[in-house]
TrEMBL record:
The keyword Signal applies. Keywords: Signal. The lineage of its organism: Bacteria, Pseudomonadati, Bacteroidota, Flavobacteriia, Flavobacteriales. Residues 1-22 form the signal peptide. This is Uncharacterized protein.
Length: 136
């Protein structure tokens, strides 16, 4: 009698496992891919953000106020005129009706350079820049 109960229990576990795997998941798979960005770090200057990612193939700028607090912005007028030896990038950050210009100039060997932010005034920051790929 005990063997019959064990056999029925084992059979029911096998059947439940078999039939539960038969059904397709109702969830859509993630649409995550690597996206190239220019990563600005070690930003030195008054009220400087912790880091900035400028997306190269999307109209997007991500600013890190700390290493975990981020704010996203739409970008426009992205232009990359970099050479073999230097980074030369310009992009506009859109905040509502306001446009903030970013001009980046840096050495490709060291990654050191400047970020010039233009609104009603002009502020210059010392930065390090690198090319990265991030999941988006």
């Amino acid at each position: 009698m005990k063997n019959i109960i064990k056999l029925l229990g084992l059979l029911s576990v096998v059947l439940v496992t078999f039939f539960s795997c038969d059904e397709e998941s109702p969830f859509i798979g993630p649409n995550v891919e690597l996206t190239p960005v220019y990563a600005l770090t070690d930003i030195i200057g008054a009220n400087a953000p912790f880091a900035i990612n400028i997306y190269r193939e999307k109209d997007l700028i991500i600013e890190y106020s700390t290493n975990v607090n981020v704010t996203s912005f739409t970008s426009a007028s992205y232009a990359d005129t970099s050479t073999d030896t230097s980074y030369e990038i310009s992009v506009a950050k859109l905040i509502g009706d306001d446009i903030i210009g970013y001009w980046i100039s840096a050495d490709k060997t060291t990654g050191e350079g400047t970020l010039t932010v233009v609104t009603d005034t002009q502020i210059e920051y010392q930065i390090k820049i690198s090319e990265k790929e991030v999941y988006n």
